[in-house]
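Journal club side-thread
Mid-discussion, someone asked how the predicted structure for our own chain would compare to the paper's figures. Pasting it here so we can look after the session.
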Amino acid sequence: MKTPDALRPEQADSAETWLLRQQAGFRAGQQQQFNHWLTQGDNAAAFARTTALWQQLGELPESEKLRLRQQVRRELAAPARRPRRLLWPALAVLLLAVLIWPLWRQLAPAEFEQVYATQRGEQRLIALPDGSTLNLDAETRLRVAYWPQHREIWLEQGQAFFQVAHQAQRPLTVRSGTLRVTVLGTEFSVRYIPHSMSGEGVSVAVRSGAVRVGPQAGWRYGWWRLVNRLGIARTDAHLRVLRAGQQSQSDGSGLLTGQSAIAPQAVASWQQARVSFDNTPLPLALAEFARYGSVHYQADPRVAELRITGSFALGRLDSFARALPAVLPVTLKKQGDTTLIVPRSTAEKKS
């Protein structure tokens, strides 16, 4: 595929239009039209070049991205009979910034950088130099880095509660799994524990203030913010603003799959040494207790699909287990140092 040295204005205009349509979701018949357009001349190379540029735009400073979005909005709003020839020059002017800005962010030394981690059963309260505080739950690892223009935290695994000091000119971003959470000043929790009761994605809950949840990748985040501002497609599966008393979850690919209400005091209930289950399979409930200490209970495969709902004290696993026969068709059976949770027998059910 030959790459054009310079895109003709009409070719750049067509490539940009098809990119917008593709990201917003093709309508009936548009996919076939797009495929046909790609076969004409060097359109495929032009489209690849345009896509690569858009992918890098997600790393631009907010001021530059805002200028670009305003330009795109004006051009898309123009009558169809008027060629949108100003859009590509605007992108070309920003190309140097696209190339230099990510490199500068990568090479510039951080003012502050630190890694924090907790072990099984350990919780840790951390005060950061900007006045923010982090409360790390058990088996959690994260990295903090501050630059003059922005603050970043990478939650690699576990869950943490964030109390973020307000700095309007230096927002804080939490990156975890396939999501990013952007805030100015608020209190919220983030959980990323794959293969657990929270699934394969990331869970975010807000106690006060507001956060914006979106894709981890910079270009995807910038893209969906642009689409949202232009109003050309629904973005709630990719980008949401959560306020106090709201929570959202993503799947393993980063798509936002749900949003629900949560009592502010219930956010990060582990801080009060409690664990909350919501229709959680019994084996995953036991696995959650295991993050805080030894668990000598084992669920029989025949009861693996049984589910539990409620709030329980983390330090009272025995009380939790003894209560199971009252709410589930199970019984406890001692076997050496382990207690098996097995299906209740027919005779026990009748009695």
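Post-session note: Confidence is low (pLDDT under 50) at residues 1-6, 80-103.
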